[in-house]
Design the sequence.
């Protein structure tokens, strides 16, 4: 059974097998978690993302999917990039958000990762309401069959930590 751990802090400072990046579909870096991971991980991550784009992701990574690259200078072996959905008040995209967590765990299993650090996917600039994002994240990780031993949610601030703590029990 996967242990859920909550940490308030910087995801780029975690010592884990894999760090999940809340990427944009281009995989070429951006703001928020994505920008922080690319900055701290160094040029090897961007180079690996460019190789993925050139090889088979010419149109970018679809929302809800996940792929892995080196972690560069991070204290991890891999970065698992996943593209979260932009929140919509008129369309239920919860299945796509859940898919980000399931697909990230699937990729982690393929890699043999036992410890994985997740951000609160889509709850930043993509506008997903924090409480609902926390619910989907915790419920999905708990329900997904995986060999990952620890799923660590690394929350940027106290508000996010509290939202996840309320769901993780």
Sequence:
């Amino acid at each position: 059974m996967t242990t859920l751990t909550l940490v308030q802090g910087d995801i780029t400072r975690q010592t884990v097998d894999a760090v999940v990046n809340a990427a944009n579909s281009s995989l070429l870096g951006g703001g928020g978690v994505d920008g922080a991971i690319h900055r701290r991980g160094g040029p090897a991550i961007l180079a690996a993302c460019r190789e993925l784009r050139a090889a088979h992701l010419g149109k970018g990574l679809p929302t809800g999917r996940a792929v892995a690259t080196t972690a560069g200078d991070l204290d991890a072996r891999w970065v698992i990039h996943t593209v979260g959905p932009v929140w919509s008040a008129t369309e239920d995209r919860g299945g796509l958000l859940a898919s980000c967590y399931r697909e990230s765990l699937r990729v982690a299993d393929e890699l043999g990762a036992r410890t994985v650090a997740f951000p609160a996917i889509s709850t930043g600039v993509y506008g997903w309401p924090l409480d609902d994002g926390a619910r989907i994240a915790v419920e999905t990780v708990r329900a997904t069959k995986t060999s990952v031993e620890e799923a660590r949610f690394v929350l940027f601030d106290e508000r996010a930590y509290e939202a996840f703590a309320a769901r993780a029990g």
About this structure: The chain has a mean pLDDT of 96.
